[in-house]
Structure prediction request, 350 residues.
Amino acid sequence: MGRGKGGGTVRITFLAPHIRIAGGVRAILTYADRLAGRGHDVTVAVPAKRPWRAWWRNLRRQGPGWMPGFRPRVRWISGWAPATLPDGDAIVATAWQTAQPVAGAPPRCGSKLYFIQHYESLYHGDPGRVDATYALRLRKVVISTWLAGIMGDKFGSPAEVLVTPVDRALFHPVEGARSSDALRVLMLHHDHPWKGMREGLEAVAAVKARHPEVQLVSFGVKRPREALPYDEFHENLPQGRLAWLYSRCPIYLCPSWDEGLGMPPMEAMACGAALVTFDNGGCRDYALDGETALVAPRRDVAALARALERMVDDATLRERLARQGQAFVTSRFDWDRATARLEEIIRGVG
Prediction:
């Protein structure tokens, strides 16, 4: 690998398709930042649509403004050509668009890894082109056992599982956020059909027909373009305010069809919400039916509604699952341990 293999500083490059706020991007940048905090020389390479934009953003040292104090170097590049990639000890693909550039990177860029956060063939690109990236000879790190199973069963490729932890400094119960005036169910609003918003609305409507006291709360980056039956909607909340919203709602509903892992449910659990979810694959690492959550079969709306109604009806169950779910996600997965393990993988240890 070069000078970083035996110890000391390792030069690491992450190829990120963008650095706008999103769950998967947060994970990439958090690993990059924490590795920099461990003394490594970390660069995040991000494409700009025009060469002059790359030049201008580099001149301004433009980074992820939503992550104050971000320590790695952000290098804006005009494309994924080998000449644009920096020298290093390791280079990491973080999305299907970056996998082929990493596979084709010259030896001076270091050893090659593929950090996989979803089975992107489902929704994020042409399935044939995306599947081809999973067949590349790159060491793979995935964020859930479900993804590891797909890599092994479909592509015959082993993968290291590294479940993304919740940032406990950001996500924790907020005292006084919850009130007794209503039983609130929180659901993420998203325009992608596979996020299951329609199924979630249908399940909530079935429950509200018998429990009109239930209020549906939603949040998202942008306000819905159509009128939807939300009792509350919170648009583009600052990062520091999300814990308040999660803490405000005793139940979190996740109707996604498929998730590589699913950070909002984990964040809500860390803040003390009880989880009701479809079996979306990625949730299997933290949503244990009857122990840390109530889990309905994938896209079975009637079963999801039954699980939600059970959570609404039974306060004792709700409090137990909230308590056990919070303990599970805040103890099983830890950023210090995860970062140390990724460092070992990058160094080629184990």
The first helix runs from residue 23 to 37. The chain has eleven helices and 13 strands. The longest strand covers residues 41-47.
